[in-house]
Amino acid sequence: MSVVEQDSVVSVMYTGTFPESGEVFDTNVNQQPLVFLVGHGNMIEGFEQEMLGAAMGETREFTLTPERAYGSRDDANVQSIPRSQFPEGMELEVGMVLGAQSDQGPMQFTVVDVNDEIVIVDLNHQMAGHTLHFSVEVVEIREATSDELAHGHAHGPGHHH
Ligand code: ZN
């Protein structure tokens, strides 16, 4: 397999920046490569689309608008929750990011305001509304195994099942 395509297992080194400021929001440089199975919803779709056809050793630079990344912010996702629904004695501070289980699986939210009665939380993805720039180097491309295709994700070092 010589280029990134549907059902490739791809290893990349990447750096994500906010194009307005140049600030790095995420990178794995000097760490382990990021390994993912292409075309199974493991990465944001725009990221995979931009990497299709890339060859081993190639570096691609691209910018994703929010629509192709984590979506726009939705004010309806800012909600008030009674303080009593949080565990008693739990410290809640503005800016905290908390995890919870929902019907759709694990989710994260940010505390934007808190008092004795209510907690105002923002359920928008923290990257929602942001345009994101990526620099991505392909360091390995291989075919997925049948197990990986059946599971819908890559099996790398430390991934046992
Ligand atoms: Zn698996």
How would you characterize the overall build of this protein?
The protein is mostly beta strands. It has helices at residues 45-51, 146-151; strands at residues 8-17, 24-27, 34-37, 59-64, 78-82, 97-102, 105-114, 118-122, 132-143. It folds into two domains: 8-70 and 128-151, Chitinase A, domain 3; 75-122, Thrombin, subunit H, CATH 2.40.10. It has two helices and nine strands, in the order βββαββββββα. The strands form two sheets. Strands 1, 2, 3, 4 and 9 form a five-stranded antiparallel beta sheet that branches. Strands 5-8-7-6 form a four-stranded antiparallel beta sheet, with no helix packed on it. Strand 7 (105-114) and strand 8 form a beta hairpin.
Keywords:
mainly beta, Thrombin, subunit H, 2 domains, five-stranded antiparallel beta sheet, four-stranded antiparallel beta sheet
Would you tell me which CATH topology of the largest domain applies? Chitinase A, domain 3
Order of helices and strands: EEEHEEEEEEH
Shape: elongated
CATH architecture of the largest domain, by name, is Roll
When the domains are counted, the total is: 2
- Content-based structural category: mainly beta
Indicate the topology.
Elements: E1 8-17, E2 24-27, E3 34-37, H1 45-51, E4 59-64, E5 78-82, E6 97-102, E7 105-114, E8 118-122, E9 132-143, H2 146-151
Antiparallel strand pairs: 1-2, 1-3, 1-9, 4-9, 5-8, 6-7, 7-8
In short:
With 161 residues, this protein is mainly β. 8% of the residues lie in helices and 39% in strands. The longest helix is centred in the first third of the chain and has 7 residues, at 45-51.
